[in-house]
Amino acid sequence: MGETAALTVKAGWMDPTVRAWLVATRPWSIPSSIVPICLCGALLHAHRDDPSATPLYSLGYTLAFVVVVCFHLAANLFNTYYDYVSGTDTKDTADDRALVDSTVSKKFVWRAGMGTLICGVTAAIALSLLQGLSVLIVAVPAACIAFLYSWDPYSLKGHGLGEVTVFVMFGPLLVIGVNVAVNGAIIDWLSVAYSVPLGLLTAAVLFANNLRDVEADRNAGKTTLSIMLGRDASELLFRRLLASAYGSVFCLVVVLGTSPHQGLILGCVPWSIYLVRRVEIKAFYELPQSVAQHNLLWGVLLTATLSEPMFVIRILIACLYALGGINNIVMWQYNRFLVHQKLSNVWPSISLVVSDVCFIAAAVGQLVTSVAFMLGIYPVVMAKLLLVFIIPVTFLVHDMWTIEDDHPTHLIPSKGTKRAASRSVANFPTEFDNEFVHFFKNVGMIGALYLYIAAYEHNGT
In the Cβ-directed half-sphere of 169, how many Cα atoms lie within 13 Å? Predict the structure, then answer.
């Protein structure tokens, strides 16, 4: 009975109101701001005379994150507010459910938008005191655009300028702003050049959103680029936005002679093809979110190829640890019962309180040590702590020897469902196969940590 209850418990741990407020900010879109900052930081670090003076740990670089993310959140909240007020978002058509489902109030969304905008402006002023008034030359237009993007009747998005605005904001203007935040008036134009593909991909997110909302926008009296072009031309433009991002990177490789390792982004081609197919069959549900997820991986791969090799190695080793730590927070209730069940297999009398303490300690330790390891903060110490974590977890959680029946790990989707890709054959047909792969995946991660420690202690770097 206890195990059954644990399996049906709600996975979320947040208060429903807090969750609704968070959803209203559209957190899935925030990597569109973060990835360009990281890419710019990688290039600035690579081109500094003193590599140890990395912008990653500077106050200016940190404030750049604060300014950009605050402006982005403000723009999202204002967009949620004005789309609802103008009638673009309704219960039947809205993808953003915060206001149409009355989970938050209009007053809250407006105040939250103004609050995050003010926070961004305050951080920009602090940054200008650090790096000079050149910061405000970039920050003031950015703050204005964050508001004007959705403000009716002067909405940039509603007059067919949304994609152009997003390209500039999340491409060249953002990266120029990071340059100013780190170096004052000195601009690294190579980083600006690399902002072009990221800007194109972010414009594709908005374009996917507008493709889905053609009828709703038309009924609300708005004129988006998708409405102006029509369905067929819009599908063609979506394909070209994705293709142009790839093409612009390879042009930079050929013309400027930058690293051919950037071909790693070709790993995202299958995902890009999947997105194009979704547009072709008009499977628009959560398409913008899917494009944003694609862009996150694409941008991370590009940034990795332009970064210091050891930094990339640490990220590749520890990224799964960090993501697991985040998942422990997001899926708190589910994971606490899972941990209790696994510990009960070796300690039958363990109480839920004790297992919760073990889970909290492991979750916090996993997240903190993995992030510190990736950032190069006492990396050997953090690698050893990760080993202390992963070895017992491998044998306690992925206990494949306890599986006595071949339980299937998936349900085959119902026939007739319109899909852009088939998912009828599972990667892991049974629970044992799933645990077997995860067990030996952890073994490989243990080996990578041992290799890193041995190489570091042998070379002293």
Answer: 29
Going by pLDDT thresholds of 50, 70 and 90, the confidence category of residue 64 is very high
Quick: pLDDT tens for 225-248: 888 998 889 999 999 999 999 999
Per-residue CA distances from 35 to 30, 31, 346 (Å): 9, 6, 43
Quote the tokens at residue 416: 């007739």
- Please tell me whether residue 430 adopts helix, strand or coil conformation: strand
What is the pLDDT, as a whole number, of residue 215?
85
Q: pLDDT, tens digit, for every residue of 143-197?
A: 999 998 888 777 888 888 889 999 999 999 999 999 999 888 788 899 999 999 9
Amino acid residing at 413? P
d(CA 200, CA 229): 18
The rounded distance, in Å, linking the Cα atoms of 7 and 337 is: 8
* Residue 230 burial (10 A CB sphere; 0-12, 13-18, 19+): exposed
Overall size of the chain counted in residues = 461
Question: Considering the chain, what percentage of its residues have pLDDT values greater than 70?
Answer: 89
Note whether 142 and 71 are within 8 A (CB): yes
C-alpha dist (Å) from residue 428 to 279, 324, 407, 411, 438: 29, 20, 11, 12, 11
Q: Tokens 């007053």 label which residue?
A: 107
Res 299 pLDDT > 60 = yes
- Report whether 105 contacts 89 (CB < 8 A): no
Give the global pTM.
0.85
Q: CA nearest 27: which of 77, 63, 66?
A: 77
**Letter for the amino acid at 100?**
V
| Long-range contacts of 126-130, Cβ-Cβ distance < 8 Å, separation of 24 or more | 126/63, 127/60, 127/63, 127/64, 127/67, 127/181, 130/59, 130/60, 130/63
User: Which residues touch 342 (CB under 8 Å, ≥6 apart)?
Assistant: 396, 397, 399
pLDDT band at 87 (very low <50, low <70, confident <90, very high): confident
* Tally of helices (H runs) and strands (E runs) in the chain: 19, 0
